[in-house]
Write a structure and sequence with these properties.
By secondary structure, this protein is α/β, with parallel strands linked by helices. Helix content is about 30%, strand content about 25%. Strands 1-3-4-2-5-6-7 form a seven-stranded mixed β-sheet, sandwiched between helices.
Length: about 200
């Protein structure tokens, strides 16, 4: 997809702030600092649309990004970047607030077309990753897993990482796990394919 326009529309904390159009929405979930903002920037070839930070827990709102394809008849959709889960330094109250905010969106938002669950490819899925995956499966949201930071792994390690993620999460279809690198082009085309199929 050749992106013409990309912009942050709103940072929301409740349904009354959601955009009111009918654009399809692709939601990004994952642990703090797993690379959600970097994933967005890499896909659309922008350096700083989604603000990245080395500090975990930076995203504390639901950030809605409008993405427009160039050319006549170009497709339009929206990325929704959710607060990262599993951030130990956040207060229990804040974690509960973010959890309720994410859950309400996932259960009630009609615009939602696809969930991308980002997991660090260098490690086995954490308990939080497994709980999130199982919760999404229970509500028939069936996420595609984006295994980030794959450039940090050797070729054999990448294959092993994908196999481990599939085993730990009980995924049978290998197409549901995409190894992704922001330093390389790896996984970019496969991620776009998933998105284009639902928009």
């Amino acid at each position: 997809m050749n992106v013409k326009n990309a912009e942050l529309v709103i940072s929301a904390v409740s349904p009354k702030q959601y955009p009111e159009d009918e654009r399809s929405e692709i939601v990004l979930l994952g642990r703090s600092n797993v690379g959600k903002s970097s994933f967005i920037n890499k896909l659309i070839n922008r350096k700083m649309l989604a603000r990245t930070s080395s500090q975990p827990g930076k995203t504390q709102t639901m950030n809605f990004y409008n993405i427009d394809e160039s050319g006549e008849g170009g497709r339009v959709f929206r990325f929704v970047d959710m607060p990262g889960y599993g951030y130990a330094r956040a207060s229990k109250k804040d974690r509960a607030k973010w959890g309720a905010m994410i859950e309400e969106y996932l259960q009630k938002r009609d615009n939602l077309k696809e969930v991308l669950l980002l997991i660090d490819s260098r490690h086995e899925p954490t308990e939080d990753d497994r709980l999130m995956f199982d919760w999404l499966e229970y509500y028939d949201l069936h996420p595609t897993v984006i295994a980030t930071k794959a450039d940090k792994l050797g070729k054999n390690q990448r294959a092993k990482s994908k196999k481990t993620i599939m085993k730990e999460l009980g995924i049978e279809n290998p197409d549901r796990v995409i190894l992704f690198s922001t330093q390389e082009e790896k996984g970019k085309e496969d991620a776009w394919k998933v998105i284009e199929e639902v928009i």
